[in-house]
Design a protein that fits this description.
The complex is a heterodimer of chains A (about 850) and B (about 375). By secondary structure, chain A is of the alpha+beta class. Chain A contains 31 helices and 21 strands. Among the domains of chain A are: about 210 residues, no CATH class; about 140 residues, no CATH class; about 170 residues, no CATH class. In chain A, strand 13 and strand 14 form a beta hairpin. In chain A, helix 2 runs antiparallel to helix 13, helix 19 runs antiparallel to helix 30 and helix 29 runs antiparallel to helix 30. By secondary structure, chain B is mainly beta. In chain B, the strands form 3 sheets. In chain B, strands 2, 3, 4, 5, 6, 7, 8, 9, 10, 11, 12, 13 and 14 form a 13-stranded antiparallel sheet that branches. In chain B, strands 15, 16, 17, 18, 19, 22, 23, 24, 25 and 26 form a 10-stranded antiparallel sheet that branches. A two-stranded antiparallel sheet of chain B has the order 20-21. Classes of the chains: A alpha+beta (about 850), B mainly beta (about 375).
């Protein structure tokens, strides 16, 4: 049978054909690889950042929760420490361990938030095995147990900051400095433990109580319970105010909160890859077009369709693999920056991540490579099919593809319209599932991209008419050139259009978001000077004001009134909920309502009677009705169901919160601590001067953040901008990918046309005119992309504002249409296209005319 | 007399031993501290009750040791051991005033074991706790010693209630002291070695009438019998070269009680500071010096768990008082494998005292057979 060697040998020859093509067209190959590389790198970077953040959270949780299945939680001030003793003395048959924990910072430890974990070493072993193993001498535990301020930290943390046993530390806890020292080091058992322990300061529970000022209190009692029956039996024994909760409830709720944030980033990174796919499609199509004659010849020589198809796909495979691998390298570099941005945002908005260094998520890398290869091969499939399906005779004819493309444009446009409708239909599905929402969004965006060829043809028709009148022959030629090569130009235009429209959409969304937040702050920030305790992180704003601070404020000259706030996290059947209790008699008038049961005055009267206000994100998360909802919270006296008087707009947190009247709060919780105060000044008083005076007076009492209204706003906006820093970076990367796409398309087109341009030059086209022709062509393409990106970007911003944001975070934003993003987008598109035309134009003009003609 | 030096090692072991394979783990590395500065038992001091029922925190180590033999009405036999140990972490001069109620310079740990002779079962458990926050402690008036829900509490003068639960076993006993405190050694000053400081303060309550319930696997057995209490405190009792000890607490049915021990040296000889006390039915005592009594093992038992070889069965002779006793363990397997490995078990007694036939029960403690107490610690 001689079929076997033939099928084995001939593809090898064919592979050489493909390989030589890639080698002989280094620019095209490089640009294809670059496109894939950028696309993959963005996806990898975001995935690495997301995975790292998620892993860091898991490790932070694992380091603190250990093997606990349940825990007993108290109100905002924790549990009475006697509860643990009572339970143990009454005979508790399951492992139980008391915990006092808080976030602290220390200048000797880089000033980053660290978890201070106070444990009882005698009951902690079943939960966390940090003090264990081998021949550990009690002498170490002696200090740990008996010396005030004795802390134990991991060798990794100590090495990072050059600390040794015996070194002094100054912890900052709720604005107060507390002396401590390194009493011992924890040698991690393995690499995972090393990373997990990185953010941990371990102390005896007595030391933790003293350092955090939680004397007589426990934050929780960890438990290992075998089943629900044991949990129910134990729950029945607990006094009012102590609630038994499964560990998963707390960490699960937090995971869920950040899931939306991470999904959004992933979707944005996928958009960059979509742009990359356009680019690959473009490059592969071009490579096929250039070789139509060769494929025709091969077909005449007896090469089968399948083999031609395989040849093109295998080329794509090689390019995809190379691009994918390089993209991973770049992605890891970008990922380092992205991890920082993502972690910062999570610290700002959700919870404190104390773990900074996590193992490289290998899954992301494999995912990235496969995605790169799959995208390339998929994008190459159509050109490959095209190459294989052409009859041998027709393939030798040069204009075959363009004729076909011209026919296809209408069909593509129809498909685009169908995709937009399908996408819109998917978006209309009322779901909180972001994958569904983003599928719809992608449908709409890709649908718009499919309309590009038709739109390009129509716009070029107009441009030719207009250009002819304005610039003459060249003005007519350039648009016609674009249309003649529509199969490739329209894809470059589509890629650029998608990138630019994403830029418009995201800019409009972020801008609207920002202006909504500014308007909202104007309404709710009515105080003149704000006083709070600096927490370890923005998301941990529960540190307590020294009572002397409030006394001082009340008697301060120029102060008309002091409003105070107690901000706490309380547990509920739906997980932890941030509750703010204040005594501002007109707070009801100063909130902005999404839905209310009456006038603001009536709403606030109801709140003073014991009702609760719920923020919009929380209401959405819990699926509360607009009227008549209720919210159950675990108070110090057992669960209490509060009627919801109104739902208010709140852009401070996507986690959501609730507002209570301070007196009502104190009825249900035995907690008279305060978290923040707002000073209202007499008319004419100087807020800045009073801030400075207060700072001088109060600093000896407690380290405080005292900020005039203006500064607080500025800081809030700074956090806002920090949150969107990564969005901006992704936007830029998508545009970069599109730029590479346009450059690649231009280069290909112009190279293909070198003979034609040579003839033009031979019949008298000057170098200047050549420059003009090429740049006009690319400029037109950029202009079309920019013009088409405007409606697409607008639609995208509508989707982002009214669908994605609301479903992800529960925020209603007021869409603000401003011209700048549109103008910027057009400018970027044209500029990118012009830049992409520079090199081909330069190359054309440098080429010898006769050589140009002969070349083909 | 149970000198258990260097308790801190037990603690370290306990912290690591019982946890299942962790996901995150580490090992503590910290400097050791000079442990000198504790009060030492350097001379006889009169013991006073009830004051000395309570703790003596200036001494480094202290224990309250209860053992007993119990029977149900139909003759099912149980032996039990319940011991609470105290260890001071800091010498008195180095202790500081702390704001937290959890701050502790004393730690407590306890062993609880039950020999269920009828079922041939032996169960032992161990616990640790801080001497703070009400979790563990001891007090003189009213007398109480406890670690969480394992506790001994005075309910009336001379009467205590002992309760302990561990998984499937539980004990709830009322103990009534029939003889009052018996001072060991020289009026409670018990020398263990040649140096004056190598000694302890030591008294016993050798005959505690016991009644209550033993619970095994949810079944409560009403029981009655006799218990024995030792209470001892010291800072450094053992001398160099001492590897372990055999200790005997014997209660005869003619009302006589007997405490004996031999301190074994590494070279196999018995330390001359070993001694004993014969407590007559009326509570009067006769000190016994090494040489006035002999203890001869009559057999041995190899633990299938630890591989340690223990003597099993003894012949005890005290010629001066006409005591000749044969001791046999109620069952062989009464080996505790906790932070350290030792044998502590119920024994039955037959023999003669002053010419009359006697029977009885007792408890024997054998240490240093699995590993030398000195070399290991």
């Amino acid at each position: 049978m001689n079929g076997t060697p033939r099928t084995r040998l001939f593809p090898r020859t064919l592979f050489n054909v493909g390989w030589r093509y890639l080698i002989r067209s280094p620019w095209q190959s490089l640009l294809m690889i670059l496109g894939i590389m950028l696309g993959v790198s963005v996806v990898v970077a975001v995935d690495v950042a997301n995975q790292s953040a998620s892993r860091a959270f898991d490790l932070s949780t694992e380091a603190v929760a250990g093997k606990a299945t349940h825990f007993i939680a108290g109100g905002p001030s924790g549990l009475d420490e006697g509860l643990y003793t009572d339970l143990q003395r009454a005979g508790l048959t399951h492992p139980a361990a008391p915990v006092v924990a808080d976030y602290v910072t220390a200048p000797e430890l880089g000033g980053v938030p660290l978890q201070l974990l106070g444990i009882d070493p005698f009951s902690d072993a079943p939960f966390r095995s940090y003090l264990g193993a081998g021949e550990a001498p009690l002498a170490g535990l002696t200090q740990f147990l008996t010396q005030p301020g004795a802390l134990v930290l991991s060798t990794g943390l100590a090495e990072r900051y050059g600390l040794q046993v015996g070194d002094a530390l100054t912890l900052t806890v709720a604005g107060q400095p507390r002396p401590a020292f390194v009493a011992g080091l924890l040698e991690p058992a393995d690499d995972l433990s090393r990373r997990g322990l990185e953010g941990l300061l371990l102390a005896d529970i007595s030391t933790a109580q003293e350092l955090t000022g939680k004397l007589g209190r426990l934050d929780r009692i960890d438990l290992i319970l075998p089943d629900e029956a044991a949990a129910e039996a134990l729950a029945a024994r607990l006094p009012d105010g102590a609630t038994l909760l499964p560990v998963a409830a707390r960490s699960g709720a937090v995971e869920q909160m950040t899931a939306a944030f991470r999904t959004n980033l992933t979707a944005l990174s996928l958009l960059a890859l979509v742009v990359g796919v356009f680019l690959i499609y473009n490059s592969m199509t071009f490579s096929v077009v250039r070789r139509r004659a060769m494929f025709g010849t091969l077909r005449c020589l007896g090469v089968t369709r399948g083999e031609i198809f395989g040849l093109v796909v295998s080329e794509a495979y090689v390019v995809g693999t190379l691009g994918g691998v390089l993209g991973i390298g770049l992605g890891l570099l970008l990922g380092q920056g992205a991890v920082r941005l993502v972690t910062q945002t999570i610290n700002d908005l959700f919870f404190v991540v104390t773990v900074q260094d996590v193992p490289l998520p290998w899954g992301s890398l494999i995912k990235g490579t496969l995605l790169g290869i799959a995208a390339t091969v998929t994008a190459a499939a159509f050109p490959a099919w095209e190459a294989a399906s052409v009859p041998p005779r027709e393939a030798l004819a040069r204009s075959g593809l363009e004729r076909k493309a011209a026919r296809v444009v209408l069909w593509v446009a129809a498909a685009g319209a169908a995709m937009i409708l399908a996408g819109a239909a998917v978006l209309a599905i009322p779901t909180r599932d972001l994958v569904v929402s983003f599928t719809g969004t992608f449908g709409v965006v890709i649908g718009c991209a499919l309309l590009t060829p038709l739109a390009t043809r129509i716009l070029m028709g107009w441009a030719a008419a207009l250009g002819g009148r304005l610039v003459g022959v060249l003005g007519r030629m350039a648009p016609r050139e674009v249309v003649n090569a529509i199969s490739r130009t329209s894809i470059a235009v589509a890629a650029l259009m998608v990138a630019v429209s994403v830029s418009i959409g995201v800019s409009l969304m972020v801008g609207s978001f920002r202006s909504t937040v500014v308007l909202w702050m104007d309404q709710i920030l009515q105080g003149d000077v704000y006083i709070s305790v600096p927490g370890a992180a923005v998301s941990e704003m529960t540190a307590v004001l020294d009572p002397r601070v409030v006394d001082t404020l009340e008697d301060w000259p120029g102060a008309e009134r002091v409003d105070v706030l107690r901000s706490v996290t309380v547990d509920s059947p739906d997980g932890p909920i941030q509750v703010g209790a204040n005594n501002n008699p007109i707070d009801g008038q100063e909130q902005v309502y999404y839905a209310a049961s009456g006038t603001p005055a009536e709403v606030w009267a109801a709140v003073m009677e014991g009702a609760i206000l719920v923020s919009e994100p929380l209401a959405r998360r819990l699926g509360l009705p607009e009227e008549g909802g209720t919210l159950t919270l675990y108070t110090d006296h057992g669960p209490v169901t509060f009627p919801v008087a109104a739902i208010y707009y709140d852009y401070a947190s996507s986690v959501g919160g609730a507002i209570l009247w301070l007196d009502v709060y104190r009825q249900h919780w035995d907690d008279d601590a305060l978290t923040a105060a707002a000073l209202r000044l007499d008319p004419g008083a100087d807020a800045d001067a009073i801030t400075a005076e207060l700072q001088a007076e109060l600093t000896p009492v407690q380290a405080l953040q005292i900020r005039p209204n203006r500064a607080l706003r500025a800081e809030t906006l700074a956090i806002f901008d920090r949150t969107f820093a990564i969005t901006g970076a992704l936007q830029l990367l998508a545009t970069l990918v599109a730029f590479v796409g346009v450059l690649s398309a231009m280069l290909s087109l112009q190279l293909e046309k070198s003979r034609q341009l040579g003839i033009l030059r031979a019949i008298g086209l000057t170098t200047r005119q050549l420059w003009g022709l090429v740049l006009l062509e690319t400029g037109l393409m950029g202009g079309v992309a920019g013009l088409l990106a405007m409606p697409t970007g607008y639609v995208l911003s509508l989707i982002l504002v009214y669908v994605i944001n609301r479903r992800s975070f529960g925020w209603t934003l007021q869409l603000q249409l401003v011209p700048e993003p549109f103008m910027q987008a057009l400018a970027v598109a044209v500029l990118a296209a012009l830049l992409a035309g520079l090199y081909p134009a330069w190359r054309m003009t440098r080429r010898n005319i006769s050589e140009g003609i002969r070349f083909d | 007399m149970k000198t258990l030096p260097q308790f801190f090692l037990l603690l370290a072991l306990a912290l690591t031993g019982c946890a299942p394979a962790p996901q995150l783990g580490s090992r503590l590395v910290a400097p050791t501290e000079n442990q000198s500065g504790f009060a030492r038992a350097e001379a006889m001091q009169p013991l006073e009750f009830p004051r000395d029922f309570g703790p003596h925190p200036d001494y480094q180590t202290e224990w309250w040791y209860y053992t007993g033999n119990l029977d149900t009405a139909d003759g099912r036999h149980f032996g039990y051991q319940f011991t609470v140990f105290r260890r001071a972490l800091l010498p008195p001069a180095e202790r500081t005033e702390r704001a937290s109620g959890w701050a502790a310079d004393q730690i407590y740990f306890a062993h609880f074991a039950l020999s269920d002779i009828g079922a041939g079962e032996f169960t032992a458990a161990e616990r640790f706790g801080r001497g703070a926050a009400g979790l563990a402690g001891a007090q003189a008036e009213p007398y109480a010693v406890w670690l969480e829900d394992w506790r001994v509490e005075e309910t009336a003068p001379g009467v205590v209630r002992l309760t302990a639960v561990h998984e499937s076993i539980a004990l709830d006993l009322t103990l009534t002291d029939l003889k009052g405190p018996i001072l060991q050694g020289d009026r409670g000053y018990s020398r263990k070695g040649a140096e004056p400081g190598n000694a302890s303060y030591y008294y016993s309550q050798t005959r505690l009438e016991s009644a209550g319930t033993v619970t095994v696997n949810g079944e409560a057995f009403p029981v009655s019998g006799l218990s024995w209490k030792d209470h001892e405190y010291s800072t450094s009792a053992l001398s160099e070269g001492q590897v372990g000890w055999d200790w005997f607490a014997l209660q005869l049915d003619d009302g006589t009680d007997l405490m004996l021990y031999t301190m074994r040296r590494a070279d196999g000889t018995v330390d001359g500071f070993s001694h004993g006390t014969l407590i007559l039915a009326d509570g009067t005592t006769r000190p016994l010096a090494w040489g006035e009594y002999s203890i001869t093992p009559t057999g041995e038992w190899t633990s299938p768990h630890s591989g340690a070889v223990y003597p099993s069965g003894w012949q005890i002779e005290i010629p001066e008082y006409g005591v000749s006793l044969t001791l046999m363990p109620w069952q062989n397997d009464q080996e505790l494998r906790l932070s350290f490995v030792y044998w502590e078990g119920a024994v039955r007694i037959e023999g003669t005292h002053a010419g009359a036939a006697v029977t009885g029960n007792g408890y024997v403690e054998l240490t240093g057979y699995f590993a030398s107490m000195e070399g290991e610690f």
